[in-house]
Structure formats: C-alpha cells, structure tokens
Amino acid sequence: MNIALIAHDEKKQEMIQFTVAYKDILKKHMLFATGTTGTKIEDATQLPIVKFQSGPLGGDQQIGAKIAEEQMDIIIFLRDPLTAQPHEPDITALLRLCDVHQIPVVTNLAGAEIVIRALDRGDMDWRNIVKEKKD
Q1: Is 73 among the residues known to form the active site?
Q2: Is 6 in contact with 78 (CB distance < 8 Å)?
Q3: Distance (Å, rounded) from C-alpha 127 to C-alpha 133?
C-alpha cells in the first residue's frame, strides 16, 4: 500500500517514535512524506521515503494530487490541534480529498496505531470493496 506520513512540527517526534515502533510493518509498503517529516523518518528508521515539499510549501497539495489520482491508500497525519497553521486551507483540502476518495486518514497517534495494526492483520482491503461498489 502507498502510505503518506505527515506531521506538524509539534508532532514530528511522535511520528518518529511511531515509525520506529512500527518499522517492520511499514517496510512492507511504499512510504511518502512531506519534506522535513520524511527526512527525519529516514534518518531514524533507514526506511526509504518518497519525499514531497514541506507542507507549507505545497507538500500537502502534492499528496492531495496523489489521492485524486488514486495513488495513495492511507494517510497518517499527526496534526497539532493547538497551533494555528499558516497553510490551514491546504490541510482542509487534503482532508476533503480523503473523504471524497474514501482514503482512510488518521490525525492522531491513537488512530495511527489502530490503522497500522489493521494493516498488519490484513484488514485494509477497503479499496477492493469500494471498487466493487462502483462497478
């Protein structure tokens, strides 16, 4: 599966801890991330990451484009709900695209752990179910 990893500045350390803890699961998938987050994950885990621009510089929109092209399967976006983000419209657009295209998106560590464990169990075949409903 194609998994996007995004974290606001105050959540980057949580993302690093998460990816280190679940490295054995994540290494089986194609990983994407916004710029700084991707670099930090790579440094901590040695997992290969396809990196986009930093979020405020268009990285959120680049991931959104992958969602619109049905080339992204899961979004793990550790958001900081207590700090205003200058690129909030981009974040809102990304979340809207997830809803439109039926892409699972989690925005906190608890949700990320549920999704990653479901992925490990093989419970994430949702795209096939959605596709069958369209056909």
Answers
A1: no
A2: yes
A3: 10
Count of domains observed in the chain: 1
74-78/49-51 β-pairing:
unpaired
The DSSP annotation for 36-102 comes to: HHHHHHHHHH---EEE---GGGTHHHHHHHHHHTT---EEEEE--TTS--TTHHHHHHHHHHHHHTT
φ/ψ (deg, to 5) at 38: -60, -45
The active-site residue, picked from 60, 99, 123, 135, is: 60
Tell me the pLDDT band of 135, cut-offs 50, 70 and 90.
Answer: low
Domain of 94 in residue numbering reads as 2-134
CATH number where 9 lies: 3.40.50.1380
Whether 15 has a pLDDT exceeding 90, the answer reads: yes
Do residues 91 and 60 touch, judged by C-beta distance below 8 A? yes
Q: Is the pTM of this model over 0.85?
A: yes
**Residue pLDDT, tens place only, 107-117:** 999 999 999 99
At 48-71, the pLDDT tens digits run: 999 999 888 889 999 999 999 999
